[in-house]
Design brief:
Helix content is about 80%, strand content about 0%. The chain is mainly alpha-helical.
């Protein structure tokens, strides 16, 4: 029996011999390992997303931070969001909608990274707006990714 043919939800009405065949062939174990790998991947994705969100929450401190602190915060945001985007893209590279969403998020991230950093309040406002744009794209991407898993 193959893994697809041994889906426990689909086999509720199957006979005892069919269920035993799935058990002895290792199909149940293979399905369980596939599900565990998928869960591990999702946990990694969630950890990267959490780190991205934590880094982006620092935008509130950008208004009062000095230039060096702003640069460090922007670099951290860029690094964590880029890692999350790579992981999302690697999890489902053939999905064009997901790829398009990742590309939009990368464009927002690039715009944030290219923003000149000065000590002025107007610059802090511009950085905050660009961080919000990145946050919006990441939230949209997370929702899309969750919808694809269901």
């Amino acid at each position: 029996m193959d893994k697809a043919g041994c889906d426990p939800r689909a086999m509720r009405d199957a006979g005892l011999l069919t269920k035993m065949n799935c058990d002895f062939s290792g199909s149940y174990d293979a399905r369980a390992k596939d599900k565990e790998a998928q869960l591990a991947s999702e946990r990694q994705s969630n950890a990267l997303l959490r780190q991205s969100m934590i880094d982006m929450e620092k935008r509130n401190t950008l208004a009062s931070a000095n230039v060096a602190k702003r640069r460090a915060d922007i670099t951290n945001i860029n690094r964590s969001v880029a890692a999350y985007l790579r992981q999302v893209l690697n999890s489902n590279p053939s999905n064009q909608t997901l790829t398009d969403q990742v590309n939009r998020a990368r464009e927002r991230l690039d715009a944030l990274q290219k923003t000149p950093i000065t000590s002025g309040a107007a610059n802090a406002q511009e950085l905050s707006e660009r961080i919000q744009a990145v946050e919006k794209e990441v939230a949209s991407l997370r929702k899309l990714q969750a919808d694809l898993l269901q």
